Amino acid sequence: MNQKNSLGLDKCFLDLDDPFELFEKWFAEAKSNEINDPNALALGTASKDGIPSVRMVLLKGFDKNGFVFYTNLNSQKGNEIKENPNATMCFHWKSLLRQIRITGILKQVDDKVADDYYNTRAYESRIGAWASKQSSTLESREELLNALENFKKKYKDKDNVPRPNHWSGWNLKPLSIEFWLDGENRIHERLKYSLNEKSIWIKSLLSP
Q1: Structural domain contains residue 134
Q2: Could you give the CA distance from residue 88 to residue 49 in angstroms, rounded to a whole number?
Q3: Strand, helix or coil at 198?
Q4: Which of the residues 55, 157, 187, 198 could staple to 183 if both were Cys, CB 3.0 to 4.6 A apart?
Q5: DSSP H or E stretch at residue 68
Q6: What is the number of domains present in the chain?
Q7: Helix axis angle, 123-131 to 141-154, nearest 10°
Q8: Chain center to CA of 89
Q9: Per the domain annotation, does 16 fall within a domain?
Q10: Is residue 146 included in any domain, yes or no?
Q11: Of 205, 181, 203, which Cα lies nearest the Cα of 193?
């Protein structure tokens, strides 16, 4: 029989009051078990009119202030976030039969944070941030390839490619974090942490 925590859930849920601690432990297991991109997540945003859209992005950092990803600020998601900062993230780790859902509010990261991460990227990726007008319509693939070559000529020094002003990161500050474990016969186990008005995390069990 599987060991349980104090709430009667599988031992993998542990007994922690801080959801960031539990996320860190689950994420570490995912990095050891997922073959491709354990930091991949589905990001859900919505326009000012409430029309939703979702796409996969990569988590590039997290701490107790939130979860960070990077993108072109003028992309569809960038424009939607400017209009409506409410967003949600969903990690799905098939190898572990686990999910984590995070809901909160997005805020752009500081320039220094964006600069520091941008400078860790490969040269071609930094050039791509300049060349790609993300989400805009291309007349042809050649248009993009030409833009890449032109920016390579402009920024020949691979150690000195400045970050474009239109490229930065977003931090999702969570209001709730839900941990989900697959169960037999679809009797899943769900634990939700919700932030109350005193900024204290409250735990609750959810029905599958």
Answers
A1: no
A2: 17
A3: coil
A4: 187
A5: strand 66-72
A6: 1
A7: 120
A8: 6
A9: yes
A10: no
A11: 203
Per-residue pLDDT of 35-79, as tens digits, reads 899 999 999 999 999 999 999 999 999 999 999 999 999 999 999
pLDDT digits (tens, 9 = 90+) for 166-204: 999 999 999 999 999 999 999 999 999 999 999 999 999
Give dist(CA 76, CA 79) in Å, integer: 5
Where residue 97 sits, what CATH number does that domain have?
2.30.110.10
Between strands 66-72 and 167-181, the pairing is antiparallel
Q: Which residue's entry shows tokens 């920024």?
A: 155
Query: In this structure, is residue 161 part of a structural domain?
Result: no
Note if the pTM is more than 0.85.
yes
Report the pLDDT value the prediction gives residue 1, as an integer from 0 to 100.
Answer: 52
Q: Which residues pair with 201 in a beta bridge?
A: 195
22-119-166-27 Cα dihedral, nearest 10 degrees: -10
Nearest CA-CA partner of 124 in 90, 99, 101, 147: 147
Query: How does pLDDT run across 122-164, given as a tens digit for each residue?
Result: 999 999 999 999 999 999 999 999 999 999 999 999 999 999 9
Cα torsion angle, 46, 77, 175, 208, sign: positive
Active-site residue set: 186
pLDDT of residue 3: 86
Domain hosting residue 38, numbered range: 11-69+83-119+169-206
